[in-house]
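Exercise 7b. Backbone tokens:
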């Protein structure tokens, strides 16, 4: 796929370019600031030259969440553009803002093609590259450490789920398919389907609600506190 990359740390940026190109992807631009990310996106995306945007959260010029804000602007201007943000720390606010959890839109507005990963995930090359593919196909990927942090917190929403159902929901939040969950948990595919259906039912997500897996992830993240972890 053709990837637009933004990362201010030169060593990590060069390493990501090397990793992505070795995996057969084309890095169409690799920039060090949020300003240059916006400029590159406005130039390349309208021409159909980008399949996915991969950006750090904290970047120049402000060294705050400039990368995230640039990513949100890109999605506002190109709503179907697959996008992954990388963060150094577990920060639920970033994931919530990226997925639009502060908006009170209906189920039909569930986001697609988005990912929030910790930078440490890059070292697990297979998982990282698989996450890119999941997001490119329109899936939602949330870093397992973020998911685990949220699961540790008792909430009225998640307390409806059994321990096994929470485990299945965690894997759904990682973007895993029913077949992958079946293999990982050593369950039959039929058992996984039943657990996933139970999760949807207990979270109040009906078959008419569009992308049920995406909505389950959103409900999962909404269950966590709004302050950073």
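Sequence design result:
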């Amino acid at each position: 796929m053709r990837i637009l990359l933004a990362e201010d740390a030169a060593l990590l940026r060069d390493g990501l370019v090397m990793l992505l190109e070795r995996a057969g992807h084309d890095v169409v631009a690799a920039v060090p600031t949020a300003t240059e990310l916006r400029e590159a996106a406005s130039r390349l995306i309208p021409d159909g030259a980008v399949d996915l945007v991969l950006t750090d959260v904290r970047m120049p010029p402000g060294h705050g969440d400039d990368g995230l804000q640039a990513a949100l602007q890109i999605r506002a201007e190109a709503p179907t553009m697959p996008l992954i943000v990388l963060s150094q720390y577990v920060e639920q606010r970033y994931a919530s803002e990226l997925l639009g959890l502060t908006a009170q839109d209906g189920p039909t507005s569930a986001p697609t093609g988005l990912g929030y990963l910790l930078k440490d995930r890059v070292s697990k090359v297979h998982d990282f590259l698989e996450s890119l593919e999941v997001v490119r196909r329109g899936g939602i990927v949330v870093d397992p450490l973020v998911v685990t942090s949220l699961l540790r917190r008792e909430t009225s929403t998640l307390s409806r789920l059994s321990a096994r159902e929470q485990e299945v929901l965690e894997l759904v939040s990682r973007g895993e398919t029913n077949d992958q969950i079946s293999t990982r948990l050593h369950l039959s595919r039929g058992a996984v389907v039943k657990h996933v259906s139970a999760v949807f039912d207990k979270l109040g997500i009906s078959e008419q609600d569009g992308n049920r897996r995406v909505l389950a992830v959103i409900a999962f993240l909404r269950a966590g506190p709004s302050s950073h972890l």
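Instructor comment: Strands lie at 2-6, 26-31, 52-56, 83-87, 114-118, 140-142. The chain has a mean pLDDT of 82.
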